[in-house]
Amino acid sequence: MNVVLRKIGNSEGFILPKELLDRHNLKAGDVLAVIENGDDLVLKPIDDSFERQLKAAREVMDQYKVALQKLAE
Predict the structure, then answer these.
(1) Residue 18: what pLDDT?
(2) pLDDT at residue 36 in the model
(3) Would you say 15 and 6 are in contact if contact means Cβ atoms under 8 Å apart?
(4) In angstroms, rounded to a whole number, what is the distance separating the alpha carbons of residues 71 and 32?
(5) Cβ–Cβ under 8 Å, residues 43 and 34
(6) Does residue 35 sit in helix, strand or coil?
(7) Residue 1, Cα to own-chain centre: how many angstroms?
(8) Are strands 40-45 and 32-37 parallel, antiparallel or unpaired?
(9) Beta carbons within 8 Å of 14's beta carbon, 6+ residues apart
(10) What is the DSSP track for 37-70?
């Protein structure tokens, strides 16, 4: 599969075909690590589930801060 490097604003990038995105369960906003392996470049999805869970926990703790403080007493 070939993709073309294109000018995107002040940067450059490429567009991945929908079939490839679907096959690897990727969507807009997903973060990929670029790994150099000799002359090759490897794209690997980064699992950010822990960070998302931590953010959700902090939001709940902020929302119920007073109640959690009372429970801790």
Answers:
(1) 95
(2) 95
(3) yes
(4) 41
(5) yes
(6) strand
(7) 23
(8) antiparallel
(9) 3, 4, 5, 6
(10) ETTEEEEEE---HHHHHHHHHHHHHHHTHHHHHH
Q: What CA–CA distance (Å, rounded) separates 17 from 30?
A: 15
pLDDT on residue 47: 77
CA dihedral 22, 3, 1, 34 (to 10 degrees): -70
Q: Give Cα 47 distance to the centre of its chain.
A: 7
- The H or E element that residue 13 is part of is strand 11-13
Q: Which domains does the chain have, with CATH numbers?
A: 6-72 (2.10.260)
- Per residue of the chain (73 residues), what is the pLDDT tens digit? 899 999 999 999 999 999 999 999 999 988 899 999 999 999 998 877 777 788 889 999 999 999 999 999 8
Residue with tokens 């392996």: 37
